[in-house]
């Protein structure tokens, strides 16, 4: 998806039609469209030919984009969970693994990267009530495997704003929530995790429409991607106007939420309420 978006930008910037680009790599106009949407695999030779057509001759830039082409064809660690993993979410896992900064706003649930095992199991059961216990555990194991991202060498930065409702909604019951809040307190100690709480007292705010994430990547030439998850699919937005709109909403949310330094105290009060 990242490579496709970059190829589209280069093509449009040079005034090249999809038909002309397709002819250059002995393919159809629809093939170029599918490549630019990240819905088809890439041949490194085709990408090299398109870069030449689009006037990209800088060795460093070509190396980055050709490296993306190679990476796009490599199965990720999540490939072994393909039986319980929809295709539209596999795309997100690839973007998440490649990111340098993940900013997320959550309304209903604790962010997946910060969920405890018991909480994750309770969330999975909400959406898959008829699933076998084996399938449920595979889904939970997938979520736990994702979290290794935060403790790997050179991990991405995670900046999460969580609505107070998500922290107080008793998913799985009080005992599960107690463990989840305790886990969040530990997560705030990680140097690459910043967690803010949007309190009830804030009333309405810029992101009241729902949860979303913005992913930024190490290479400056790659566009940010906004991810919005739906019940049976997801939206991936990378056009500048869309990204700017969501980035502005995220900035306002971070300003309106409680400062990160207050998060441990807020979580401790919620723990005390659960004890009560």
Residue share in helices?
A: 40-55%
Distance between the termini: 48 Å
Q: What is the residue-mean pLDDT, rounded to a whole number? A: 92
3D shape: elongated
List the total number of helices: 12
Strand adjacency order, main sheet:
3-2-1-4-5-6
Secondary-structure element pattern, one letter each: HHHHHHEHHEHHEEEEHH
SS elements, strand count: 6
Instruction: Describe the largest sheet.
Output: 6 strands, mixed
Summarize the structure.
This protein is of the alpha/beta class and 276 residues long.
Helix and strand topology:
Layout: H1 2-13, H2 18-24, H3 29-36, H4 44-53, H5 59-72, H6 87-98, E1 101-106, H7 117-127, H8 133-146, E2 157-163, H9 164-168, H10 174-187, E3 193-198, E4 212-216, E5 225-229, E6 234-237, H11 240-256, H12 263-275
Parallel strand pairs: 1-2, 2-3
Antiparallel strand pairs: 1-4, 4-5, 5-6
Helix pairs in contact: 2-3, 4-5, 7-8, 7-10, 10-12
């Amino acid at each position: 998806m990242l490579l496709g978006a970059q190829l589209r930008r280069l093509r449009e910037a040079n005034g090249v039609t999809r038909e002309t680009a397709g002819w250059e790599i002995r393919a159809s106009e629809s093939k170029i469209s599918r490549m630019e949407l990240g819905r088809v695999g890439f041949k490194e030779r085709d990408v090299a030919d398109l870069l030449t057509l689009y006037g990209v001759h800088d060795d460093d830039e070509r190396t980055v984009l050709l490296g993306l082409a190679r990476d796009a064809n490599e199965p990720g660690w999540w490939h072994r969970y393909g039986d319980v993993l929809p295709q539209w979410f596999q795309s997100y896992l690839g973007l998440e693994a490649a990111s340098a900064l993940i900013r997320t706003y959550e309304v209903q649930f604790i962010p997946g990267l910060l969920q405890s095992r018991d909480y994750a199991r309770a969330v999975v059961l909400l959406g898959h009530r008829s699933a076998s216990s084996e399938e449920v555990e595979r889904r939970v194991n997938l979520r736990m495997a994702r979290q290794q991202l935060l403790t790997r060498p050179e991990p991405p930065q995670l900046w999460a704003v969580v609505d107070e409702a998500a922290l107080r909604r008793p998913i799985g019951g009080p005992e599960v929530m107690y463990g989840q809040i305790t886990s969040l307190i530990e997560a705030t100690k990680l140097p690459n995790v910043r967690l803010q709480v949007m309190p009830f007292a804030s009333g309405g705010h810029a992101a009241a429409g729902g949860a979303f994430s913005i992913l930024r990547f190490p290479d400056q030439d790659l566009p940010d991607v906004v991810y919005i998850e739906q019940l049976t699919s997801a939206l991936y937005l990378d056009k500048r106007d869309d990204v700017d709109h969501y980035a502005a909403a995220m900035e306002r949310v971070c300003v309106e939420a409680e400062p990160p330094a207050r998060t441990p105290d807020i979580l401790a009060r919620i723990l005390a309420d659960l004890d009560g």
